[in-house]
Write a structure and sequence with these properties.
alpha/beta, Ribosomal Protein S8, Chain: A, domain 1, globular, TIM Barrel, about 400 residues, three-stranded antiparallel beta sheet, 13 strands, eight-stranded parallel beta sheet, 2 domains
């Protein structure tokens, strides 16, 4: 007899074990996902629902922890077990009647886990998410935190875009307004004058697709007219009420980032009891707002906003618990490049954080992120190639 401990952190270990013993590819994968550990935090529930969950857990073999007070207005429960044991709670034909209101939301979480988004339709194109999408940063600002003032002309910015593309960028993100902590807004006309010639020049050179990093509807409209395919809004539709309707009409790809307040005030709003679930809840509300405005769900990417209204400790917790954001079911982008919290861990100054950025991106990939906005594309591409080689089944 021989007993072997398989790696529990990935379904790939179980899939490979089953495949090696004759299982076909798809049944092996679904079985592997089915026995993966799953933990669900259920909040704002009644005492009777908590008691029913405990009773259900005893019968089903799931572990249930409950409490009567928490962050919300009601009680809470933590339900843990294999995905296959918890899945009946998401099925109307199997869930106990007293727990039936859990089924819709739990079903969404389980569906996102089993079938994550495989592609991202943007304006005029579609980006596969089977491999990492590296977004190359082109900052045409005088005051961005790490590279402000480096690209002093339209021609220099376009050449920089050509280098990023050659190094492996699949999307180029052009920004004309710094959103570093304490930054002040740039007037729309000035921002347009900075980004539109660069976007038009990139498109003319056949570089791209191109994203515009802006919070303003006027800037987004001008950028889309110049050929941009994506709008990356760091405010998550909070800054300009006109932006959502514009994006819905344009059929553009949309990146919605989590941020509290504005760049001038966000550092004072970094207060969380449990950062990942709170950021997830706020991002879910943002995405729901976008869909109500007419933006198609499949065009939405969410970004947890590393460095925006978050302390270094909160950023590390958010990176470690990134799967909580991924579980919302939207493709997840991360903007980790050269951020302050990387310096807090490594002691490196802002100009020497590209190695740490690459490592952080690899960790984010393992936790489910699929888009990575960075300054140094080549180094990040290598890190993600290694991370992808360990996580993509043959």
């Amino acid at each position: 007899m021989k007993i072997t401990a398989l790696a529990a952190h990935t379904p790939e270990a179980v899939r490979a074990a089953l495949a090696a013993r004759g299982w076909e590819t798809q049944p092996a994968w679904f079985a592997a996902v089915g026995i993966q550990p799953f933990v669900a935090l259920i909040e704002d529930i009644s005492e009777s629902e908590r008691e029913a969950l405990v009773h259900w857990g005893t019968k089903s073999g799931a572990d249930v922890l409950t409490g009567g007070s928490g962050l919300g207005t009601g009680g809470w429960a933590l339900v843990t077990g294999s995905t296959s044991r918890i899945a009946p709670l998401a099925r109307y034909d199997r869930v106990p009647p007293e727990l039936s209101r859990f089924a819709p939301e739990l079903g969404k979480l389980l569906a996102a886990r089993a079938e994550p988004p495989r592609s991202w339709p943007i304006r005029g194109a579609e980006l596969s998410l089977e491999k990492p999408v590296i977004i190359g940063i082109i900052n045409v600002t005088p005051d961005s935190f790490s590279d402000g003032g480096h690209l002093t002309s339209v021609a220099a910015a376009i050449e920089h875009g050509a280098r990023l593309t050659a190094h492996g960028a699949r999307l180029l993100d052009v920004g004309g307004e710094s959103t570093r902590p304490g930054a002040t807004p740039v007037p729309p006309d000035e921002e347009i004058a900075r980004v539109v010639p660069v976007i038009a020049g990139l498109i003319k050179r056949g570089l791209g697709p191109v994203s515009v990093d802006t919070r303003k509807a006027a800037v987004a409209r001008a950028a889309l007219d110049a050929g941009a395919a994506v709008v990356n809004d760091v405010s998550g539709l909070q800054y300009d009420p006109a932006l959502a309707a514009l994006l819905a009409r344009a059929d553009a790809g949309v990146i919605l980032m989590h941020m509290r307040g504005t760049p001038a005030t966000m550092d004072d709003l970094a207060t969380y009891a449990h950062v990942a679930p709170e950021v997830a809840a706020e991002l879910a509300a943002t995405a729901e707002k976008a869909e109500r405005a007419g933006i198609a769900r499949e065009r939405i990417v969410i970004d947890p906003g590393f460095g925006f209204a978050k302390t270094a400790t909160q950023n590390f917790r958010l990176l470690d618990e990134l799967a909580t954001i991924v579980a919302l079911g939207y493709p997840v982008a991360v903007g980790l490049s050269r951020k302050r919290f990387l310096g807090a861990a490594t002691g490196r100054p802002v100009a020497d954080r590209d190695r740490a950025t690459a490592v952080a991106c690899a960790l984010a990939w393992e936790r489910g992120a699929r888009l990575f906005r960075v300054h140094d594309v080549a180094m990040t591409r290598e890190a993600l190639a290694l991370a992808g080689a360990t996580t993509n089944p043959p």
